Amino acid sequence: MTREKKTIIITGASSGLGAALAAKYSQKGHRLFLLARSKERLDAVAKICIANGAEAYVLSVDVTNSAEMEKQLNEIAYQYGIDIVIACAGVSAGTLDGPETASQVRKIFATNVNGVINTVLPVIPHMIERRSGNVVIVSSMAGFLGLSSAPSYSASKGAVRLLSEALRGYLRVWGIYVTTVIPGYVKTPMTSVNSFPMPFMTTAEEAAEKIVNAVEKNKDVVAFPFGMQFCIKLLTMLPSFIFTWINSKLPGKPAFEKDNNL
């Protein structure tokens, strides 16, 4: 029996979780469009995907560029249709080197919030027309709490978590499923700069497998690992003065100037 070839768009596909998702989907022989800023790194990921039996196309584009994103996504939709879109591109930075600067906060929101908007919204009309599709938005456990170690990162991930939740209810009538991905620490270049303990860390490959399985089952939410999810849940139940005290003791994440992987 021949498997259906799906057209899948993945942003942030040049490294980390995005690259792991590309590799995982490539094993199923799908048609992949890999988006990120670094063409060199995208080419390396595409080479792996093609070797696994998939079609893989590289698009060097910045997700913060709304006009270019809309142009590229429309062209893909008109030519192939879009079955799955995964908004995975993201950046992270924090307060290790002092208060967050305005430029750092704007950069985080531009990528983590506007980047998701620029990835998802152009695709939705095409999926509505076809009355099918899967939208996948990568949030974070940090999106449940305003963490002192990474204020704007937490806020940005909370924003896209709520956006994902809202879109899920709105789009279901058209047969479109929205999956919110809520990972804890995943071993990627984004977390490699952290000098503090990161409990319950999973590999990018393990995370990608969980996400792919959840999307195949049209799950609303996939959150992992359970240990981190349990800890976050406990923190949200604490009285505010206790959480504030704990929050004031958290070690900061490096600022962008200290992080060459972003």
UniProtKB/TrEMBL annotation:
The keyword Magnesium does not apply. SUPFAM superfamilies: NAD(P)-binding Rossmann-fold domains. Keywords: Oxidoreductase. The keyword Membrane does not apply. Belongs to the short-chain dehydrogenases/reductases (SDR) family. This is Short-chain dehydrogenase/reductase family protein. It comes from Candidatus Megaera venefica.
